[in-house]
C-alpha cells in the first residue's frame, strides 16, 4: 500500500515538474502563439514560460494564472526554436565591436551560428573565444577548426604531400583546438591550401576529431567538374566518414555548373546508401541559384596559386607558364557558365562591384580570362556565380537529412536572407512543409552538430526562441542590394533574454560561446 502511494506521489511530482515552473514567478511568458516545437510536424497551441536562461514551462494556453514579469502575446504569430545556422563566415565580424551584434543573422531568426567553415578558422580558438566573450556577441557561436588553417600553420601554402612528422604536428593542433571547445573540423578541399591534402591526410586528422566526439564538416573537393568531379567528391567524404568513424556533414550541397545539373538524384542515392551502411551523412543548403566565392578561387587553376597570391603573379609573369594559366582560367570560366554568369559582389576596388566579368572584360578591352588577373591585381574580389539549377535546389531541400545553412558571407544576399527566403519562396511556394523547414533549421541541426539542450521548445532546454509573422516573414536582400535586413521577425529570445522586440533590435548582446564538453 505504502509503496503504491509512494509511486503515486512520484508520478504526481513528475507531472507537476513537467507542467509548472520550478519556483516562483517566470521571467517571460509567451501566450497565444502557434507553436512549432522543432520536433513535431503539427503546431501546438501552448504557452511557454521562461525563467533565467531556460524554458521552464510548456503547457495549456488557457491557463494564465502563472505569475510572470513579462508577457508576450503572440496572437497570430509563429513561435519556434531559434534557428541554428550550420555554415557562416561571421568569424571576423563577431570580433569587431561594430558588428558583433551579428544583426544580418539575428534578423533571420538565427540564434546560433557556426564559424570556422570551409577549412578556414580563426586560430587559436581559445584566443578568439576570449575576444568574443569579453566584448559580447549578438548570437550564440559554435567553433569548428579549419583543416586548411591547420595545414597552413604547419606547412605553409605549398602544394605537396605532408610528411609523417607534419601530420603529427597537424594532429596536435587539431587536438588543441578541439580541447578549446570546437564541435568538429571543417575542410575546404576545393580551396588552397586544404585542396593540397590527400584523402589519407584528412582521415588522419578526422580521427583525432572523432576521438573528441566532434563532427566532420566539408566543402567538397569538387562540387561540379573542376577536378575529381562531384560524385567522386561525395564518395571521398563518405570514405572519410567510414575510415575515421565520424559523422559527415556536407556543406552547401549543390550541383555546381551546367555539366552536373540534375545530378542531385545520384548524389542523394550515395548519401542514402551510406546512411544505410551506418555512416552518418547529412548536409546543409542555402536557397539560392548563385554560389559565392573569391574570384581567384572560382576560376584560377589550383596549381597556379600554390604558395599564395604573390606566387601566382610570379608565375603569371613567366612567359612559359602564362598561356597555361590563362587556358585553365578560360576553362573554369566556361564551367561557371561564362563571364556573364560571374557577378562581382564585393571588391577592394569598389568600381568593380555590381558588374559581371563579361562587362568588365569588355570595358577593359581584354579577354575575360585576362581581365580576371587585372581585377585580382587591384585586390581581393568576391563573385556570385549563377551556376545552380532550381531542380537540384528543390530536390536536395526535400531530403530529411538536409538542413538550412546560410553560408553567409559579405556581398551575397544569403548573409541577410537565407532562412526567411527559404520560408517565403519554398515553404509558401509549396516545396517543403513549414514544420520541415523549422525542424530542419533547429532540432535536426542541433542533433547533427551534437549541441545539447537547444533546437527544440522543451522544458529544460535553453530559451532560444523566435516569434515571426507568417504573413510578412521574408528576405529583402538581393544581388543588387545585398545588405538589407530580413523582415517579419517580431521577437528573438536568446538564452532567455530578449534581443529583438516588436521587430526592433534591443541593443543587447545575449549570445554565448557554446563549447563542446
Ligand atoms: Zn564553402
From TrEMBL:
Residues 70-499 form the Amidohydrolase domain. It holds the Pfam family Amidohydro_3. GO terms for molecular function: hydrolase activity, acting on carbon-nitrogen (but not peptide) bonds. Keywords: Hydrolase, Signal. Residues 1-24 form the signal peptide. PANTHER family: COLLAPSIN RESPONSE MEDIATOR PROTEIN, HYDRANTOINASE/DIHYDROPYRIMIDINASE FAMILY MEMBER. This is Amidohydrolase.
Amino acid at each position: 500500500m505504502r509503496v503504491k502511494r509512494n509511486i503515486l506521489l512520484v508520478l504526481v511530482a513528475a507531472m507537476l515538474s513537467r507542467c509548472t515552473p520550478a519556483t516562483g514567478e517566470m521571467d517571460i511568458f509567451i501566450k497565444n502563439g502557434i507553436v512549432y516545437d522543432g520536433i513535431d510536424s503539427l503546431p501546438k497551441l501552448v504557452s511557454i514560460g521562461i525563467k533565467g536562461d531556460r524554458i521552464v514551462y510548456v503547457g495549456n494556453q488557457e491557463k494564465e494564472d502563472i505569475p510572470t514579469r513579462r508577457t508576450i502575446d503572440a496572437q497570430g504569430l509563429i513561435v519556434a526554436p531559434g534557428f541554428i545556422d550550420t555554415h557562416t563566415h561571421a568569424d571576423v565580424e563577431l570580433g569587431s565591436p561594430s558588428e558583433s551584434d551579428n544583426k544580418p543573422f539575428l534578423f533571420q531568426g538565427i540564434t546560433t551560428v557556426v564559424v570556422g567553415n570551409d577549412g578556414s578558422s580563426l586560430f587559436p580558438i581559445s584566443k578568439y573565444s576570449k575576444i568574443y566573450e569579453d566584448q559580447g556577441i549578438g548570437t550564440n557561436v559554435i567553433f569548428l577548426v579549419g583543416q586548411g588553417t591547420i595545414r597552413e600553420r604547419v606547412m605553409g601554402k605549398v602544394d605537396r604531400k605532408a610528411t609523417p612528422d607534419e601530420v603529427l604536428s597537424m594532429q596536435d593542433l587539431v587536438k588543441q583546438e578541439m580541447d578549446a571547445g570546437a564541435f568538429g573540423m571543417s575542410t575546404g578541399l576545393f580551396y588552397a591550401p586544404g585542396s593540397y591534402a590527400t584523402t589519407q591526410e584528412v582521415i588522419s586528422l578526422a580521427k583525432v576529431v572523432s576521438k573528441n566526439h566532434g563532427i566532420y564538416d566539408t566543402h567538397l573537393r569538387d562540387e561540379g567538374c573542376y577536378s575529381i568531379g562531384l560524385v567522386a567528391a561525395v564518395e571521398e567524404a563518405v570514405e572519410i566518414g567510414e575510415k575515421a568513424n565520424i559523422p559527415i556533414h556536407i556543406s552547401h550541397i549543390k550541383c555546381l555548373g551546367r555539366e552536373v545539373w540534375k545530378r542531385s538524384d545520384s548524389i542523394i542515392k550515395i548519401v542514402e546508401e551510406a546512411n544505410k551502411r551506418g555512416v552518418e551523412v547529412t548536409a546543409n543548403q542555402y536557397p539560392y541559384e548563385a554560389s559565392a566565392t573569391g574570384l581567384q578561387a572560382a576560376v584560377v587553376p589550383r596549381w597556379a596559386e600554390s604558395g599564395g597570391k604573390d606566387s601566382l603573379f610570379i608565375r603569371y609573369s613567366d612567359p612559359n607558364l602564362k598561356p597555361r594559366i590563362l587556358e585553365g582560367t578560360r576553362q573554369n570560366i566556361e564551367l561557371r557558365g561564362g563571364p556573364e554568369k560571374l557577378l562581382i559582389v564585393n571588391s577592394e576596388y569598389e568600381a568593380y562591384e555590381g558588374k559581371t566579368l563579361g562587362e568588365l572584360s569588355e570595358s577593359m578591352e581584354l579577354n575575360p580570362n585576362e581581365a580576371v588577373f587585372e581585377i585580382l591585381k587591384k585586390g581581393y574580389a568576391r563573385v556570385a556565380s549563377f551556376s545552380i539549377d532550381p531542380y537540384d535546389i528543390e530536390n536536395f531541400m526535400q531530403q530529411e537529412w538536409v538542413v538550412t545553412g546560410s553560408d553567409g558571407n559579405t556581398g551575397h544576399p544569403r548573409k541577410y536572407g537565407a532562412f526567411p527566403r527559404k520560408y517565403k519562396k519554398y515553404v509558401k511556394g509549396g516545396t517543403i512543409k513549414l514544420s520541415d523547414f523549422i525542424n530542419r533549421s533547429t532540432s535536426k541541426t542541433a542533433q547533427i552538430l551534437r549541441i545539447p539542450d537547444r533546437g527544440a521548445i522543451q522544458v529544460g532546454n535553453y530559451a532560444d526562441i523566435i516569434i515571426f509573422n507568417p504573413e510578412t516573414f521574408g528576405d529583402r536582400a538581393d544581388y543588387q542590394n545585398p545588405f538589407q535586413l530580413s523582415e517579419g521577425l517580431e521577437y528573438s529570445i536568446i538564452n532567455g533574454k530578449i534581443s529583438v522586440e516588436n521587430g526592433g533590435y534591443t541593443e543587447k548582446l545575449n549570445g554565448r560561446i557554446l563549447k563542446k564538453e
